[in-house]
Amino acid sequence: MKNLILKHFYKLIGDTQKDHIRVLIFHDIEKENFNKFEILLNSILKNCNVISPEEFKMSINGKYRKKNDKKKILITFDDGYKSQKKITEKYLNPLNIKALFFLVSEFVNCTSKEDAHNFVRNNFYKEKYMYNLDNNLENMNIEDINFLINSGHTLGAHTKTHPQLSKIKNKKELISQIIDCKKNLEDLSNKIKINDFAYTFGDFDSINKSALSCISENYTYIYSGLRGNNLDIKKNIVRRDAVNLWEPLEVINCYLNGYLDFVYKRKINTLEKWI
Ligand SMILES: [Zn+2]
After folding, report:
1. How many Å lie between the centroid of ligand 1 and the Cα of residue 138?
2. pTM (2 decimals)?
3. Which of 14, 133, 134, 159 has the most CB atoms in a 10 Å sphere around its CB?
4. SS3 of residue 260 by DSSP
């Protein structure tokens, strides 16, 4: 129903002329959705500038302006699924598009498909996931991550085991989830430094003041899952748009034009007051 309304809304209103810096979140991309990713990417390339993590950081600090007034889009991937490496190899690398990958450091260590499926069931949902998982689902291993590093992509941290940070009572555990992820990832390669952290689940209820302060003490940029425009943001709390490939392009275009941003505005203001 929501999608139907948005679809009609977009057909009626179309694109806004407003300047936007938007960040997209992708999760696991099933093989049968690879062509949908390609269609979405082509549509984005037609209407927007896809920027690298480095250009994104210059943009939000006002240091990077492109001549045309197209929307700027950064692509991010959460959790560290093998499908994300395949998508990168197939679609992003040939176009020289650089993305940001938020990894769960212990997920990298899964050594079999069964291991990876158990990890996903136990950790990637707020409650244990009892339904079928995509049979091809696997984690990225160290080799895959080196592939990303060597092709110029950026890695970010997404905790050690993907808990809901707002629910952790033990301070030591909270700190370990936030900091050890960075240490573990930096140990994988001497070529990388981790400055970006995406908090798990991304919604307002999954973060609180003490978790946010700890993140801001250890990372330069904090990525949420709250929708919004990143033009001239003040506290480096990045707004992101989760994208599901089964959603019609018109609905995704509503996100990219900020038509739903009003829903998240107060929540983001609260996060900014916490740090
Ligand atoms: Zn996640």
Report:
1. 15
2. 0.95
3. 159
4. coil
